[in-house]
């Protein structure tokens, strides 16, 4: 008697297991089939349950998992698959609608419950993602192995289920009769987020500001302007799109600025500042308007302004952030810890700083997404911790800080030592080539994160900047790394204006320091097939030139580096 076919037997495609990046799980929409999303949800919930991270002490009443998403066309379908996973785990769904990722996370933290957000952030619409949160905050890197193991158990179970009994069809999607309808939207999450800021920012905190909020397809395009208005700002909204538009707030081009300037110029009255966020509204965009000139405020400097405004005593920032932060923040008595790129790493660093006795601990990423590691007294109240990227807090704080600064927004920006940053990327860059670059420049000794090329050898340092060794000139290690240094210098050539390489940092990617003070940092995306350049120089035009040289086609610096490494 023949065995009944399983779901795996009838699939019309080869399923692809979903993988974690630096901020949740992301993939192409066709890879995010309902069955994969369902198994991911069930595995995560089981892991949270076994580790005591589904609900935290103090939770009361029924467990209803908060769930929200962004405005991508694929989000509704993926939300339904997550909702089925939650329901089949015996839990209720608290459908919070289309709200910013930090709004959903903050709401779930106050409820002491785990949560899920369906979002691909700023990446193109043909991709999406799922960001799970524990009851006490983001999933950390230490959680991922246990989650992967639990998810795999559910994959084996679902793909091995008899096809006739499976809720999924050959395409991996829920059958029409098994697809759930999402519950009505619960507005409580949006209101809790509004109240977070209303309680600490006075009704006139931003009075005098006339801001243009660029709506496009940012999920916070309704909620965030409401919060800004409640703090006294006059906000004009423009540029709403019915289609999803990917906007990376870390890679704003001249064309983006021209478009924003045109929007501002079409308004009846003068605009002081242009504001927006990325797709899931956890990364801010701030552009100062000075007459006919627009000045983009980089996220890494924006974060420093916010931290000083809030009275931080210690901060965590990724290695990709502007190198002047130590000098500027140190002058304000703020301790700085550098980390790998991604919110899990800065969160872990914030936890370490708190354990070390720091009292007002904060963090941000180079994109400006701001994390508050602990409750802080502010504005006559208490601003509660929100250890996940947030765009709204930096938007509020930078305008409030500029209001009390004699030089306004530009004065805040001009207070930093002259070091200008520019990032850019190549999309659809083969991930195997990106990994090969990183692996080539990864020392065998995992403790080594920085190599400084000195006259008589190479000095070695760990992630905290402690000297841990030295390779004398002529040693096998020094000869090997001298060859790698020469390879870099054959890419970053003198004819393109580059000085010799004097230092390499490999904490996350390959960060090249040149003798003239310039920096070129090459790093693959953790979530998408992208290779990114972070360029720094003491002249704005030079930073832009380095970034442009890096992504130029067909023979820019990044392509050239990949070829040289492959041939080495």
Structure explained in plain terms:
34% of the residues lie in helices and 24% in strands. The chain is α+β, with helices and mostly antiparallel strands and 568 residues long. The strands form five sheets. It has an eight-stranded antiparallel sheet. Strands 1, 2, 3, 4, 5 and 6 form a six-stranded mixed sheet that branches. It has a five-stranded mixed sheet with strand order 8-7-9-10-11, with helices on both faces. Helix 10 links the parallel strand 12 (314-318) and strand 13. The protein starts with 6 loop residues before the first helix and ends with a helix. GO terms for molecular function: magnesium ion binding; phosphomannomutase activity. InterPro entries: A-D-PHexomutase_a/b/a-I, A-D-PHexomutase_a/b/a-I/II/III, A-D-PHexomutase_a/b/a-II, A-D-PHexomutase_a/b/a-III, A-D-PHexomutase_C_sf, A-D-PHexomutase_CS, Phosphoglucosamine_mutase. It holds the Pfam family PGM_PMM_I.
